[in-house]
Amino acid sequence: MKFRVLTLTLLAVCGLAIAAEPNYPLDAPAPDGRRAGGTITQEFTPPPLRDEENKDLKRERNYPEQPPTIPHAIRGYQVDINSNRCLACHSRANSARTQAPMISITHFTDRDSQTLGAVAPRRYFCTQCHVVQHDVKPLVKNDFENIDQLLYHENTQNQQ
Ligand code: HEC
Ligand code: HEC
């Protein structure tokens, strides 16, 4: 019995030693993604966080199913197992008092398409889908076109 424990421990230690050995050159160039330049092991100082916009202005949605961005600041709003600050304003019961738009019907529907009496578990963590607004340039190039632009291009092409 003792012998088996010893073998297992030895195996585990060897395994750890092998896992800790990096199998890439330390000066390999890092992929030019959101963190452009440098090597894989180099650490950069991240850019400072921008302030959240707090203008109460809706932004255009790129497609109808897009979660609307949050037009107000949410710093310090807690969402955990005990409380949900967002629902303090956006729930069915509270939206009249606060004049916050009520969460839509999809937020009451669970994964089995059952409409529940309160927010569905899969819609509980609001910031999984809704993000605050920032006045910043996109981090990566994006040539997304919305449906109006697509149809416009299609029509102009057909006319030629
Ligand atoms: C103190 C009340 C209050 C709290 C708390 C609050 N909101 Fe809001 N929210 C509003 C109001 C009011 C609006 C309407 C626009 C405005 O006045 O900013 C709004 C607008 C929104 C919208 C835009 C809806 C649309 O149709 O464009 C989203 C999304 C949103 N809130 C998400 C959140 C999330 C996520 C949280 C929690 C992190 C949260 N809100 C917390 C009051 C609140
Ligand atoms: C899994 C993604 C997801 C989560 C989590 C989620 N939402 Fe949404 N939300 C959406 C999408 C997508 C829309 C737009 C289409 C729709 O209504 O389903 C939306 C729409 C909204 C709207 C606009 C409603 C309207 O009638 O225009 C509000 C307000 C909102 N969400 C608030 C919240 C709050 C508050 C929470 C947390 C309790 C939350 N959402 C969690 C995806 C999500």
Automatic annotation (TrEMBL):
Heme c 1 binds at residues 72, 86, 89-90. Residues 29-71 are annotated as: Disordered. Its main location: periplasm. Residues 1-19 form the signal peptide. Binds 2 heme C groups per subunit. One of its GO terms (cellular component) is periplasmic space. Pfam families: NapB. Coiled coil: none annotated. Keywords: Electron transport, Heme, Iron, Metal-binding, Periplasm, Signal, Transport. Heme c 2 binds at residues 107, 126, 129-130. GO terms for molecular function: metal ion binding. This is Periplasmic nitrate reductase, electron transfer subunit.
